[in-house]
Amino acid sequence: xxxxxxxxxxxxxxxxxxxxxxxxxxxxxxxxxxxxxxxxxxxxxxxxxxxxxxxxxxxxxxxxxxxxxxxxxxxxxxxxxxxxxxxxxxxxxxxxxxxxxxxxxxxxxxxxxxxxxxxxxxxxxxxxxxxxxxxxxxxxxxxxxxxxxxxxxxxxxxxxxxxxxxxxxxxxxxxxxxxxxxxxxxxxxxxxxxxxxxxxxxxxxxxxxxxxxxxxxxxxxxxxxxxxxxxxxxxxxxxxxxxxxxxxxxxxxxxxxxxxxxxxxxxxxxxxxxxxxxxxxxxxxxxxxxxxxxxxxxxxxxxxxxxxxxxxxxxxxxxxxxxxxxxxxxxxxxxxxxxxxxxxxxxxxxxxxxxxxxxxxxxxxxxxxxxxxxxxxxxxxxxxxxxxxxxxxxxxxxxxxxxxxxxxxxxxxxxxxxxxxxxxxxxxxxxxxxxxxxxxxxxxxxxxxxxxxxxxxxxxxxxxxxxxxxxxxxxxxxxxxxxxxxxxxxxxxxxxxxxxxxxxxxxxxxxxxxxxxxxxxxxxxxxxxxxxxxxxxxxxxxxxxxxxxxxxxxxxxxxx
Length: 560
Ligand code: ATP
Ligand code: MG
What we know:
- By secondary structure, the chain is of the alpha/beta class.
- About 25% of the residues lie in helices and about 25% in strands.
């Protein structure tokens, strides 16, 4: 599936794929069915991308299919807005669920019928304990729990109460339906887990139809079974729930028998991957929404200009295993640079403009030079680039009094203008405060295209734009959201990188960029990868820096 050719992406091997292979070889399944089961209570982040690439990837590799299933069992926190956004994100990442779009809520009636069946066979009961009492009766990891005094009420009584719960006879939270398993089980999840709770909240899909809702545990495995899922792949925190997952399947007349496998979640340095923490960043105003380009959400990456192929490439290199690990953010950044290097057209853009007048170039004249679009990809061709007497260069590419190794512009020094001419700095104009505001240079007409016929060399090549043709833009320089490698604690504020967004105004771009489409990556030569932001307007262009050309953080760490 991966758009690049990393061997790990082509022939993935891991314990999950091995299990699937042996199931197929043994004839236990004819078609592999997986599912990606997001809860629509937030936006997808790069951790979810691991689950998406695994579930959809495995289904594709083995010629099966993957369901997109919304796990919408908790209406208190769920919204339609999230459902639509999640669909968009999965599609953007490059996966297609075809006709297999499902909602756990599609099965509410069936699940309820199964709950009644458990009550009728003495395997579930209605409990009147309060939440606090239930917690107390549950015991701890080291002490067994105690039976609720309501555990032994008759099936008839429990059934009657369950029906009244459904009919809305009781206030929220006053009773629950629990499985009758074992209050002394070592695994706390088996200590009579809750199957249904009373909750009056309008559900995005079923509206006011229900006032009791199944728990994740009661819904998940049975929904897998109804959908014919063969391999239910989830993250490691569900490992202790597996005995319960199996208990329901063993005790209910489900139409198929799925199996749950657990793999370790993706953790990334300099990042938080928890919807709750991400929600806090949005609500407390540290970022401008879920799709802020600093966010590790898929919508944030998309807006920042990260191609979906880079994310797939990164995920394809991760081990699918059961061991906890935290992956260096630099690894994702590497995938982003590699992908963009191969695909992004090169453009010229001056972030901090310094005016240069070419005194021996005719006033009012314009010529079109030829610029290569992508040296990595000859088929990308060339584009015309206008040149004239007044241009902008990068302020940082000039030094009045340069150190020895500075090969760019300085008084008397000759440099190459990319795709254009050699120029020599003849005069430096300063304002009253001594700031350099303009350079006066001469050019050598014989060096058109950037080479001297007499073979003379220059050490510096700098980028530029023609002042009369350039389009102004705001540029948002994005960097890592957290300076801390392992942002910790609930107060994330101290770990935030204050320079994660630096906004530059009055940047000057080559004219081609006036029509750039939002999200389409380009390389600004010598600067990094950028894309137009959705905020961009024809006369008020806005570009985002996706990532710099080199890993500035590694350099900083090496310097110490
Ligand atoms: P969060 O912890 O960010 O709130 P979640 O697990 O509650 O995420 P869900 O919507 O329930 O979010 O997740 C859908 C699927 O994505 C689940 O199968 C979950 O295991 C998987 N998933 C979530 N986060 C990660 C992660 N960091 N790495 C791998 N898989 C993940
Ligand atoms: Mg979850």
